[in-house]
Specification:
Layout lengths: L2 E10 L2 E8 L3 H19 L6 E2 L2 H6 L3 E4 L10 H12 L8 E3 L5 E3 L6 E10 L2 E6 L11 E3 L14 E3 L6 E4 L4 E4 L2 H7 L6 H13 L11 E3 L4 H8 L2 H8 L10 H8 L9 E3 L4 E3 L5 H7 L2 H9 L2 H4 L1
Parallel strand pairs: 3-4, 13-15
Antiparallel strand pairs: 1-2, 1-7, 4-12, 5-6, 7-8, 8-11, 9-10, 11-12, 14-15
């Protein structure tokens, strides 16, 4: 595979910010590709079994694909789409610059305050590969980008710097104009979407606690969600926060009897209590995650079908 370009995308104030071109030689490009080619080969074999993006895929972190042309202006992916289309239509000329230090090592000098690197974009003739960079990436014993400063700031060596991820988060097919997302959670983190999840999940819990949101056609409300021990249990679970942040008020249309059937599939200690007289469902710290499960249709269905171990 002949790589054409390698870019670095940054974020600032919880939004994608700028894309920089890394000037690298063929040897360095090949070295970077070798670091993730094994994972890429594995992920490519799964693409034919992927489904188009839907609500269930987001809630359950199921890999998906979507057509770039169908990303609407209101979509959370619209900013990402615009940056990628701009990159392809007018290749980025903003080069990342380094300051020279002793022993030819350097550090990036043209990043602004609070501007951080989020992911790499590796481009070849057919695709763009997106490699998410973990905020707290461990450098030791990992392949990393670094710099030996030359007159044209070419990246020619890698003693210290940006970790090259060994896994591919997503791939954009340039011919079909389709985006294949291999790791939903990592992809959303890459786009800075994780950074406002807690605020969204707090808003959802508040609306359920105050009765603005209900479940089933019978309009059952929840009690116990205003207890600190319950909210602490929810916020301590990354999966719970993620699912709550993606909740849609139209998500639950199962009858209350079907929801009860789903709950009864769980271990007794995880079952919420139904009060049919007051049309309320009591949530405790032990059953907090069950609350998260039964407000989503897809999880209720999986509970009913017996897929309990991955539903809660």
């Amino acid at each position: 595979m002949a790589l054409e370009r390698i870019y670095v995308c940054t974020s600032k104030n919880s939004k994608l910010y700028r894309i920089y071109l890394l000037q690298t030689g063929d040897k360095e490009k090949q070295s970077i590709f070798n670091n993730f080619k094994s994972d890429l080969a594995k992920q490519r074999t799964k693409e034919s079994n992927m489904n188009v993006l839907n609500g269930n895929a987001l809630i359950e972190d199921i890999p998906y694909y979507l057509e770039f042309a169908k990303i609407a202006e209101k979509s959370y992916l619209h900013d990402f789409k615009e940056k990628i289309e701009s990159l392809l239509n007018d290749p980025e000329e903003n080069i990342i610059h380094f300051s020279k230090k002793s022993k030819s090592k350097g550090e990036i000098k043209n990043l602004e305050e609070n501007e951080g690197i989020k992911f790499l974009i590796v481009q070849d003739e057919q695709s763009l590969y997106f490699l998410s960079i973990a905020r707290n990436a461990v450098i030791k014993n990992k392949s990393i980008l670094s710099v030996s400063i030359t007159e044209n700031t070419t990246v020619v060596d890698v003693p210290k710097g940006i970790q090259v991820p060994p896994v591919v988060t997503a791939r954009y097919d340039r011919a079909d104009e389709k985006l294949f997302v291999y790791d939903v959670n990592r992809f959303e983190s890459m786009l800075t979407l994780n950074e406002n999840r807690k605020a969204k999940s707090q808003a959802v819990i508040s609306k359920f606690a105050h009765g603005e949101y209900t479940i089933s056609s019978a309009k059952y409300k929840f009690s116990g969600l205003d207890e600190d021990t319950v909210t602490q249990k929810l916020y301590s679970s990354a999966r719970a926060v993620r699912r709550l942040s993606k909740y849609s008020a139209q998500d639950t249309d199962y009858s209350i009897e079907k929801i009860k059937e789903a709950v009864n599939k769980l271990d007794v200690s995880l079952r919420v209590t139904f009060n049919d007289t007051n049309k309320t469902i009591e949530v405790t710290p032990d059953t907090a995650k069950t609350f998260v499960g039964i407000i989503h249709n897809s999880i209720v269905q999986r509970l009913i079908s017996g897929e309990i171990e991955i539903a809660i």
